Amino acid sequence: MNVSATDLLLWVAVPYVCLAVFAVGHVWRYRQDQFGWTSRTSQLLEHRWLRWGSPLFHLGAFMVIAGHVVGLAVPASWTEAVGVDEHAYHATAVWAGSVAGLAMVAGLGMLCARRLLTRRIRLGTDRSDKVLFPLLSATVLLGITATAAHNVLGAGYDYRSTVSVWFRGLFTLSPEPGAIAGAPLLFRLHALTACLLFAAWPFTRLVHVWSAPVGYLVRPYVVYRRRTVAGAPRRRGAGAAPGGRRTV
Amino acid sequence: MRVMAQIAMVMNLDKCIGCHTCSVTCKQTWTNRTGVEYAWFNNVETKPGVGYPRRYEDQEQWKGGWALDRRGRLVLRSGGRVRRLLSLFSNPDLPSLEDYYEPVTYDYDNLISAPAGPDMPVARPRSVLTGRPTGITWGANWEDGLGGAPQNAGADPNLSGEWAEKVRFEFEQTFLFHLPRLCEHCLNPACVSACPSGAMYKRVEDGIVLADQDECRGWRMCVTACPYKKVYVNHATGKAEKCTFCFPRIEAGQPTVCSETCVGRLRYLGLLLYDADRVGEAAATPDEKDLLDAQRGVFLDPFDPEVVAAARESGVPEDWLDAARRSPVHALVSKYKVALPLHPEYRTLPMVWYVPPLSPVLDAVDAAGGDQDDPDHVFAAVTRLRIPLEYLAELFTAGDADVVGGVLMKLTALRSYMRERTLGEEGDESALEAVGLTAREAEDLHRLLAVAKYADRYVVPAAHKEDAALFATENRCPVETSGAPGSGDGRRVLLGIPALRRRTTDTPAGGRP
């Protein structure tokens, strides 16, 4: 298939640049900014919207991410090999995806609403949030619109033979820009905003995802630490000296 | 036996005049920054009163501290590990800012920039969070001196039924005392146990409980778990901050700022040795009323040769053992048993203890027409008057009025004996004997409670340099903002001060200048 320069730029260059920024950005941020590495909770300032919006968004996001992993990373031949035919896969994906997507959209809508409507929160919003919230909203809305337009209301679009092939190609270092170039506009826009979201990720509050405290499940309750000793290597983060631990 | 040392505090409540010097100096030292305007690492509450944040002692609502499950095991009242992770997205038991108060600043600029006119310009309050004019409707001790008691004091979680009524309607005849509060630096800290990221910890050397600003991820479980509500969320950084027990001063052998500046000289600092292996068992004592004795049972006698040997083995330095023997806290808590912990029923084994105030009882004697200088009248009041004795018991002994009564009897006997001695009389030792004191012990206790000098009140051994070669307070200013040049060398204690300029009314809450 002939591949135009635009397709090469959009579906090879942009994704690789974004992934590089994602990887290098995380290393840089983790080493330089342990102090800023946080969920930046604002529950203290507003809790009525958050109470519903945040769990809806997060739980919806978990399901959506799981769905994307299955849809993008797992080739159709594998699911068929375990006895899931295209029809069954499609039905499950549309149903579960719609529920998850709606939860995520509703939750994100509430989180955006409180950020815009509650003055305390709006004024506490920093530059990274002003990038993150629109970018995340655009990605999520484009994704759910694509699903609704093509797979719920429309005739059905088998992205697993196009978008997924392109996606896997990026990671097997044999990019296939042609695979996605023919996909419907909504899918292509969704993929592009997602690339930008990954590029912005390390510079926003999204980094708190990597700090999900699963270790808490097996840790002893009371944590004891010795006063830090000079020159001893720090457990993590940048800076080597004891004063570097900010303790309040 | 695993011997550990803890720097602990005792406050003699009869001496607290409610001047708030401790709160103010603490605030100026630690929380005069954006994001923690509402945080009071140390505050002084009027009792009876709702406290700060409002009704924090109501653990049915706030779910602070520990509880025993059906099988008698110790669990965090706010739920187990799985439940905690499930409530990360929205913590159902987190106080909101309305339970504290909306921080304000004043429109000072108006005082000098107002145009000439017939009226004196005023500085109106503005919300620090929104920059808009606001009313000041609550504070860290809004009901100071029982102000507004008819409306508010009845909501004190320690009062119930007819007491609440009495305080509400007869507050001019009721009692009043001040309760300075700071982080308890508990032996079994619920905040540390609830921190999902392991950012909070108890220091091995001196037992100070701290929140690591680099590792806190803002999951805010500590705020819920602390039954004393002495961990605060910095709303600008989204991280938890708490009382540090002024560790840079403690490491240098100096008392905390609140102690140093206490006008009434009611605070005592000293070491307590304890057996770390018995902490969990003591915290799980089945009957709440036995918790006080269980916690005293965890403390070790620094004069006992076996304890000293075990302490040396655990690495407690020799001068610390000496300090533990001279510790005024050990004397008040373990030897004379006149100090009591605040709310032992929370099962955190708190380490800031209080000598309960005799003044509410003396007030009651006066109100009943008795003579507060006659120990018989006071004894009678201690045994007969339900209020305030049961109130003090709710605060300090999980409701066991006999224990509080015993301490107050001891203080009364001491007061009357020393009064006679001071007036040149022989002194009647029978009252002393009744409360288990000898004349020599009485003089010792009296010296400790009434005339102790700086060096007797604060026995703080300096930290050992061989343990930590570089100290926060050594050769440099320990406090730097994170935006200051040169802070990147990681050698300073960074306090998490955002690099933002302090807000003016034009650039409120987090707005970049």
From TrEMBL, chain A:
Membrane topology per record? Multi-pass membrane protein
Cofactor(s) listed: heme b; Mo-bis(molybdopterin guanine dinucleotide)
Task: Give the SUPFAM superfamilies listed for this entry.
Answer: Respiratory nitrate reductase 1 gamma chain
Q: Does the keyword Cell membrane apply?
A: yes
Q: Keywords, A to Z?
A: Cell membrane, Electron transport, Heme, Iron, Membrane, Metal-binding, Nitrate assimilation, Oxidoreductase, Transmembrane, Transmembrane helix, Transport
The positions annotated for binding heme b are: 58, 68, 190, 208
**Record-annotated NarG-like domain positions:** 8-227
**Predominant cellular place of this UniProt entry's protein:** membrane
Membrane spanning stretches: 6-28, 49-73, 93-113, 133-157
Q: Where in the cell is it found?
A: Cell membrane
Gene Ontology cellular component annotations, sorted alphabetically:
nitrate reductase complex; plasma membrane
InterPro entries in alphabetical order: Heme-iron_electron_transfer (IPR051936), NarG-like_domain (IPR023234), NarG-like_sf (IPR036197), Nitrate_red_gam (IPR003816)
Keyword match Metal-binding: yes
Which biological process annotations from GO are given for this protein?
A: anaerobic electron transport chain; nitrate assimilation
- Annotated GO MF terms: electron transfer activity; heme binding; metal ion binding; nitrate reductase activity
Q: What role does it play?
A: Does not seem to have nitrate reductase activity.
| Entries under PANTHER family matching the protein | NITRATE REDUCTASE PRIVATE CHAPERONE, REDOX ENZYME MATURATION PROTEIN REMP FAMILY (PTHR30598), RESPIRATORY NITRATE REDUCTASE 1 GAMMA CHAIN (PTHR30598:SF3)
User: So what family is this one in?
Assistant: In the N-terminal section; belongs to the nitrate reductase alpha subunit family. In the C-terminal section; belongs to the nitrate reductase gamma subunit family.
Q: What is this protein called?
A: Nitrate reductase-like protein NarX
- Which organism does this sequence originate in? Streptomyces caelestis
UniProtKB/TrEMBL annotation, chain B:
Instruction: Give its localization.
Output: Cell envelope
Instruction: Please tell me whether the keyword Transcription regulation is annotated for this protein.
Output: no
State the GO CC annotations: cell envelope; membrane; nitrate reductase complex
User: Taking every annotated instance into account, which residue ranges of this chain make up the domain 4Fe-4S ferredoxin-type?
Assistant: 7-36, 173-206, 207-236
User: What coarse category fits the chief subcellular location reported for this protein?
Assistant: other
Which keywords does this chain's UniProt record carry? 4Fe-4S, Electron transport, Iron, Iron-sulfur, Metal-binding, Repeat, Transport
Q: Which SUPFAM superfamilies match?
A: 4Fe-4S ferredoxins
GO MF annotations, alphabetized:
4 iron, 4 sulfur cluster binding; electron transfer activity; metal ion binding; nitrate reductase activity
The family database entries (Pfam families) matched by this protein are listed as:
Fer4_11, Nitr_red_bet_C
Is the keyword Iron-sulfur assigned to this protein?
yes
Q: Which GO terms describe its biological process?
A: anaerobic respiration; nitrate metabolic process
Instruction: Look up the record and name the cofactor or cofactors this protein needs.
Output: [4Fe-4S] cluster; [3Fe-4S] cluster
Q: Which domain of life is it from?
A: Bacteria
Tell me what this protein is called.
Answer: Nitrate reductase
Which species is this record about?
Streptomyces caelestis
